[in-house]
């Protein structure tokens, strides 16, 4: 069986402040084969990697990402909220992540955070950056904004897309085909083995999120998902290794 992609969720976010270069590098160090991250845009048009629309939780600034310049953002401490040892961490740009992963075999899952604020034109901007690094075959673009995903596929048919959703989507593989999407990035409870099998028959893969408990990882590995998004890539690697040893 093909090994699933081990996506480090916002980097190895169990061990480092999420969506920082430290978290991405830690994920790589632990053996992740993929990185999941979130992209938004500053007031002056820089693509930056941060989950929340507000800067408050991870930097302490009570403003929205879209309302600050990159110069302002680059001065903020994005690590101390997690631990004082990470006080030098900053909110990185998309280019910074692609720079450290461009010569690897890592799969980069870029989630467009354009559900609350639409960031018009961000789809083309992200695609342009990905293409400039020659990484179209290494990237999956995902979003809860499915209109945006359909637009991405129109702009860049060569880049894979993944539909983010929580639960209750009926025959999601059929829905995925209407968007020309390649993958279903479903919440972990919205994945059953028979659904994975049916999706596979339609050429659609599953990459569920956010899977941190060993029992959940085991269940999804048994369902033969294509990838798993986790804060603990090392846990998943250990489990995969144990399963491999047991079959030898």
Short summary:
This protein is α/β, with parallel strands linked by helices and 248 residues long.
Structural commentary:
- This protein is an alpha/beta fold.
- It has 10 helices and 9 strands.
- It has helices at residues 21-30, 56-59, 70-74, 94-101, 122-132, 146-155, 172-178, 193-201, 214-222, 233-247, and strands at residues 5-9, 34-41, 47-49, 107-112, 139-143, 160-165, 183-186, 205-206, 227-230.
- Strands 1, 2, 3, 4, 5, 6, 7, 8 and 9 form a 9-stranded mixed beta sheet that branches.
- Strand 4, helix 5 and strand 5 form a beta-alpha-beta unit.
- Helix 9 packs across helix 10 (233-247).
- The longest helix is centred in the C-terminal third of the chain and has 15 residues, at 233-247.
- The model has no long low-confidence stretch (mean pLDDT 97).
